[in-house]
Amino acid sequence: MLKASGAKLFPWKNWDEWYQVVDHLFQGDLSQVLESLQIVSHWRQKMAIPVAVDSGAQLVELCWKQDSITEPIFSLALACAIVRLVNGMVDNMQESSYAVSVTGLASQLGLPVFVAEMRHDISHNALPSREALLFATKECLQWLKKHYFFAQWEQLVPINHNILSYLQLYEDSSKQVWILMTKIVFLIVFLRMVVPKKGNAH
Fold first, then answer.
1. Which CA distances in Å does 49 have to 33, 42, 54, 91, 181?
2. I need a labelling partner for 146 at 20 to 30 A (CA). Which of 51, 74, 183, 193 fits?
């Protein structure tokens, strides 16, 4: 979503919130995962969120809840999330007037080829086994972690570093200004003490 000025809008408060949610989804305990899933749910209510975030959260949630969801509902839910993730990732690359295969585009993205092939099987053939879907889910989450979430964070680190550098520079400059103004005040006070006023000179 874009503002009228062209700047992108995001549902998260700031990038620190985004990072914490991602970190807890992939590396947190159950309570942290559930809290992050709740935050993602709030994001969805605000606006459409990036498919990588949406599908990634769905896959993580299904992995944590796999023992409480019966078949075939669980496998169908995994299959839908995998298809949506692959389609969402490759759709952004389909810019040529000549259609490129999903498998070819997925390969360019670094997605495992078998995941793209599984997407085709899910859409047109028999539903893969639960074990195959869970393995594909694990590979999808590893890909998201490396190629989307951590890659995004690496782009933000230099920005955060620059912001901190500017803030430090501002803080240092403010200190220098404060010191200078303090010296000026003391100088004014000193001059008033040593320089006689008009009419007081003898």
1. 18, 10, 6, 15, 50
2. 74
